Request: fold
Amino acid sequence: MLNLEIINIVTEDLRMKGLSREEIQRVLAKVAEIMNEVELESLDKATLIEGVPETLRALKARGLKVGIMTNGCREYAKKVLARFCLEKYVDAVVARTDVARPKPSPEHAFYVLKLLDVSAEEAVLVGDHWLDAECAKKSGLQFILVGRLEQNVEALRGYKYLVANSIIDIVHMV
Reply:
């Protein structure tokens, strides 16, 4: 199960057991703290997808703004960008810890759009997961799927999207 699904189930279970809103918030804060620690501990295992630096460099050379929307914590996102020397290509980073409701909620996408000062019509969400597709659909963003979506194709039903075989293909698609 995804962290998002687990947290939703736990929240409802705690509510059913009679915990107050404040008690549930304390539990969720502790869960978030643990998730952040685990993410940071895994930093050494992070790998770079082939073609990412070239793709980001090409997008920036075309004058495009680049934002990252991640369900990871902010510290992890910043450290990964620094580790692979990618910060110079990114105009905005919005982590799960920056919004009340991360993706697939459109709130996550709307916050990135606000930071980039662009409208949904001017933007494209690129992702490799059904959460990305659902977020794009809910926020009115065009969507480019990188690779094959194998988890939840239901998120894409009735939604027009493009498929990129590799990350570098995005440069020619936007």
Observations:
- The CA atoms of residues 85 and 164 lie 24 Å apart.
